[in-house]
Amino acid sequence: MEIERRWLVDGWPQLTPAAVLHMEQGYFSIRPAIRIREEALQGGNTAYVLCFKGGAGLVREEIEVEVDRDRYVRLRAMLGKPMIQKEQRRYLLPGGLTLEVNAVDPQLDTGFFYAEVEFPSEAAALTWTPPEELHVYLSHEVTGQPGESMAAYWARTRG
Length: 159
Prior knowledge:
This protein is of the alpha+beta class. It has one domain: Hypothetical Protein Pfu-838710-001 (Beta Barrel), CATH 2.40.320.10. An eight-stranded antiparallel beta barrel has the order 1-5-4-3-2-6-7-8. The longest helix is centred in the middle third of the chain and has 11 residues. The chain is globular and about 45 Å long. It starts with a strand and ends with a helix.
């Protein structure tokens, strides 16, 4: 189960990231979302993930399965479309939460930034307020709004 809130943001926050990842991802289906993703941690390991997401909004079913590099390459070749390019920076927040900020397709005119925070429960997500220094930065929430998922972005730009 995935419980997360999402915001459209302008650039990176004025914080120091705890981790930086370079990712590429592509979709086989958008409803339910079935995607593959390469996640390369700067200075660390690379993971290859096959992910299934059902539903929409604050709470969604999510199943992630790691695959080896060879399977990932074979699956990526089946897509036949350019992968979405992302840089993700992770910032530690009070209460053990993490703010993940993503620069999506920065080399394209369609590129944008978004931020997400995952929560341990729906109640925690509904009652959470950003720390004071992030109130303005996280002011454009799009959790659950149609067309604001990465799968929807894939459909718009890679259709």
